[in-house]
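User: I'm writing a short report section on ligand binding and want a predicted complex to refer to. Could you take this sequence and inosine-5'-diphosphate and write out the structure as tokens? A short remark afterwards would be nice.
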Amino acid sequence: MANITFTMIKPDAVAKGHIGDILKDITDAGFKIKAAKMTQLAKQDAEAFYAIHAERPFFKDLVEFMTSGPIVAAVLEKDNAVADFRTLIGATNPAEAAEGTIRAKYAESIDANAVHGSDSDENAAIEAAFHFAAKEIF
Ligand code: IDP
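Assistant: Sure. The structure tokens for the complex follow:
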């Protein structure tokens, strides 16, 4: 699935009513939505999803934030999906995100940063499978 990436619209952006704006930016940038759902992560889901960050000082806050409200999870398809999507969303810290990127437009802070984007093809496949059964990816 080299042309696939996985995203979440995070609780801050959902709470602020930006689901539609962000999905429009994503599809305008040439991504096809292969799967999408609104859901809320349980603590153990967020801990498992972000297990790679378990030793980082912000881990507890990250899990608390990601479970604080509903998210929209989606699988996206495009040539060069992982890299192009990270360009579209901008730097982790919205203060450093390039103008016009999703995080520059909608994120509040380095933790409440509006969207997730996979960082490799391997993680995109793992993250898509974490949230969606094969028959839910079209
Ligand atoms: P990424 O989402 O841009 O790939 P990562 O370094 O993988 O960034 O971090 C995962 C998530 O953890 C970030 O999107 C952000 O929500 C949170 N995070 C990263 N660094 C910090 C920090 O220094 N303080 C608080 N939260 C952070």
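A remark for your report: The mean pLDDT is 97. The chain has one domain: 1-134.
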